[in-house]
Design brief:
The chain is mainly α and about 55 residues long. The chain has helices at about 1-25, 30-50. It is about 80% helix and about 0% strand. α1 (about 1-25) packs antiparallel against α2 (about 30-50).
Amino acid sequence: MKILQNYIEDVLIILGMLLIVFATYLLSYVAAIYVLGAFLFALGIFFAYKPPTSKRR
C-alpha cells in the first residue's frame, strides 16, 4: 500500500486524462486525436522542465 501512496496522484491524473480523451472520442474521433495530442504535448513540456526522478521511495 505504501508504494501506491507514492504514485496515486500520477495514476489519478493519467486516468482523468484518459477519461477526457474517451469522452471526446465519443463525440468525435478527430477531436479526440487533437485532445490526445495536446495532452501528450503538455506532458512532454512538463517532463522537460521537471524530469521524473527515482527518489520517490
